[in-house]
């Protein structure tokens, strides 16, 4: 009898105490749930065993990455409804888990056991990062984390990011393509830093070299770009050589903490500070301050989370930590600006680009979906599913205001306290 979907629906509604807002299609061909609602496909009963052995986000993530869970149709609609089902909003500090109905937990476990089968726990998908060595955010462990995320193939990133090869939010004007919006973002950074011919720029977390190339080509800067990813560095060096800019751009595989050839006129840090870690953030700010000349500028482009009422309750998202950005941590905007100012920098401008990142992510998801077979060939089915889920869920989080992204312009004042900035600090916004 094909009845797995009705049984799963009844189980979920009994546990959560609310009607299920999605439709379930099970491995036995059965379906249940509201007609016309987004469809969650449970392709294999193994997904239920994962939830038995690892309840919560990791169990769900493992089932998704393994291809045992999937979406039929609108992924964004499915994720929105599931997020509303699993999480409750709490005024002022984001979200909290919806409490399960305790009397039903034991009965639910028995039902999952009957549906999923009493077998050993399935092994985690290969895409999950499980072995980490060294202290959190040590140089060795940071190299491991960066390699896990970025060294998955430059061809794969070309497929998703497009010709710009920029892996941070673009800066859109009405009707702009992704490539144009990414160029506009790079130029916005360059103009905020007031780059001019001969200025020394340090690009921290230089990625595939796009900011370095733009700064040298369009503004005449002399650039040092540092990254921990060997694949990124090789790709960036090739681009530099092809554009004939080797005399202006040096790409290094180097930890920013090991840069010793300051002072620099300007520093750009675009989408890198998320990897630093809360315990190391003051060190990051202090190091960048020391690398700037008096009057030098820093542009810090960073994703921020909403502050919690009780910061001790903050936890790193387990799916992101295991599959996407190992050891990555998001800080509230206020904590970031405070660390920069404690280091001796003066924060002069903050620009929020939250909606721009949502648009960027939707472009990336569309590119991944349009080239799905090639993305799978270049990486693995699991890796492609990781990126699709993470980018789509992140787009929704930016749209709903759960996370944001900000460009912070700071300056190292000279001995007389002079910033060197114009009276109209937004002169770059045209």
UniProtKB/TrEMBL annotation:
The keyword GTP-binding does not apply. One of its GO terms (biological process) is lipid biosynthetic process. It comes from the Bacteria. One of its GO terms (molecular function) is methyltransferase activity. Residues 132-142 have a biased composition (Basic residues). Gene3D superfamilies: Vaccinia Virus protein VP39. Keywords: Lipid metabolism, Methyltransferase, S-adenosyl-L-methionine, Transferase. It holds the Pfam family CMAS. Signal peptide: none annotated. Residues 115-146 are annotated as: Disordered. Belongs to the CFA/CMAS family. PANTHER family: CYCLOPROPANE-FATTY-ACYL-PHOSPHOLIPID SYNTHASE. This is SAM-dependent methyltransferase. It comes from Streptomyces solincola.
């Amino acid at each position: 009898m094909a009845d797995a979907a009705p049984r799963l629906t009844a189980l979920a509604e009994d546990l959560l105490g609310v009607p299920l807002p999605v439709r379930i299609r099970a491995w036995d061909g059965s379906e249940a749930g509201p007609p016309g609602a987004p469809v969650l496909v449970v392709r294999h009963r193994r997904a239920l065993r994962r939830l038995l052995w690892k309840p919560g986000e990791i169990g769900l993530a493992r089932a998704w990455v393994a291809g045992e869970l999937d979406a039929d149709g609108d992924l964004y609609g499915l994720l929105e409804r599931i997020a509303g089902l699993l999480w409750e909003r709490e005024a002022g500090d984001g979200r909290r888990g919806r409490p399960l109905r305790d009397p039903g937990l034991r009965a639910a476990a028995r039902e999952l056991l009957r549906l999923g089968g009493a077998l050993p726990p399935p092994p985690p998908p290969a895409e999950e990062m499980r072995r980490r060595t060294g202290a959190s955010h040590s140089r060795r462990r940071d190299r491991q984390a960066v390699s896990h995320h970025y060294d998955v193939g430059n061809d794969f990133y070309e497929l998703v990011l497009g010709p710009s090869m920029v892996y941070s939010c673009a800066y859109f004007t009405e009707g702009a393509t992704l490539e144009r919006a990414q160029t506009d973002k790079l130029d916005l950074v360059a103009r905020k830093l007031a780059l001019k011919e001969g200025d020394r720029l340090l690009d921290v977390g230089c990625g595939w070299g796009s900011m370095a190339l733009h700064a040298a080509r369009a503004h005449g800067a002399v650039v040092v770009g540092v990254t921990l990813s060997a694949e990124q560095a090789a790709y960036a060096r090739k681009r530099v050589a092809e554009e004939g800019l080797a005399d202006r751009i040096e790409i290094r595989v180097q930890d920013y903490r090991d840069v010793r050839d300051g002072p620099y006129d300007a520093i750009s840090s675009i989408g890198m500070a998320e990897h630093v870690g809360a315990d190391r953030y003051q060190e990051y700010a202090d190091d960048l301050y020391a690398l700037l000349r008096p009057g030098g500028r820093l542009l810090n482009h960073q994703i921020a989370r909403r502050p919690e009422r009780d910061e001790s309750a903050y936890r790193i998202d387990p799916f992101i930590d295991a599959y996407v950005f190992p050891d990555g941590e998001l800080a509230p905007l206020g904590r970031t600006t405070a660390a920069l100012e404690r280091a001796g920098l003066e924060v002069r401008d903050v620009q929020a680009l939250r909606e721009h990142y949502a648009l960027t992510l939707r472009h990336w998801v569309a590119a991944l979906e349009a080239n799905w077979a090639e993305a799978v060939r270049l990486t693995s089915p699991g890796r492609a599913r990781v990126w699709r889920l993470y980018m789509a869920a992140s787009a929704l989080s930016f749209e709903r205001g759960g996370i944001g992204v900000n460009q912070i312009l700071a300056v190292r004042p000279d001995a007389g306290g002079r910033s060197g900035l114009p009276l109209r600090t937004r002169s770059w916004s045209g």
